[in-house]
Amino acid sequence: MREVYFIKQNKEKWLGIEQVIDGKIKKNPDDLSSLYINLINDLSFAQTYYPKSNTTVYLNHLSSQIFQKIYKTKRVEENRLVYFFKTEVPLLVYQYRRYLLYAFLFFVLFTSIGVLSAMYDKDFVNIILGESYVNETIENIKKNNAVGVYQSGTTWGTTIGIIFNNIQVGAKLYIYGIAGGVGTLFALLSNSVMLGSFQYFFYDYGALKQSARGIWLHGVFEIFAMVVEAMCGLILGASILFPRTFSRFNSFKKGFKDSFKIFLSTVPFTICAGIIEGYVTRHALKMPVILNLIIILGSLAIIGFYYFVYPSIVNKKTNKNIHDTIL
């Protein structure tokens, strides 16, 4: 069958499924299951005969949306907040996983630019971090206390200030995505270049190990959350630039809804980062090195698992549950 005829034959059905997903048409669980089976058959046909076609991409996206709809309808009652973090966010992260990869690659690229800039231009760090901060840190390094800047102020006051600042940075990374993702990339560039030059600055003064023991206690949650927030901004931008079969407004509405949920999932990590920075980082060099490593590697394992590994596990489990329900 020619692809044009295949599309013409099933177009109305697919548009109807889009309306079900958008909530414009209500269906009971049995009808949803029937729609899903039909759609999977169409997807299998398209994958066989038009494997590199946009039709196949579209049907794959549509099928993922309808099975999430089924799962929400079929799922047993549970605490809404638990469901949000345990199932809803991981499924969305899996669906948009390529944007997490893009955000991570841009982060690595921009951080490398910061490192190279600081390496070849000795005044670059002063411009990025501020001369007073650099001079204060140099004095601290001479006193064998590279993370001395984190020891000023009260613990609770510092914590609150840091949390609000980090949430503000994350919100900019996300909301700036409304400019087609360009604003998000600019905000990510600014923060990543600062990080790269910041770390090279400590390396240049022979204090990289000391700084890492302190900075990455809170930095793992803070920086990883920043990458995920950039992912959300890219999703928002893509929903405007690439509406696919949706109207641009409906695509934006869906992109905003999905990306905002993922963005909200970063808030607990941002709060944890602020608490660690306010209460723990100031004691970084007094702690046994093994304790520093436990906190740093433990934080990396938790957030890395949640955004990179767990979404795939939830997706497979959900897919299996749906097929079992249908059969």
TrEMBL record:
Membrane-spanning parts: 99-120, 173-203, 215-242, 262-280, 289-309
UniProt cross-references to Pfam families, sorted A to Z: SpoIIM
InterPro entries on file: SpoIIM-like (IPR002798)
Alphabetical UniProt keywords: Membrane, Transmembrane, Transmembrane helix
Stated name of the protein: Uncharacterized membrane protein SpoIIM, required for sporulation
Organism: Chryseobacterium contaminans
Taxon lineage: Bacteria, Pseudomonadati, Bacteroidota, Flavobacteriia, Flavobacteriales
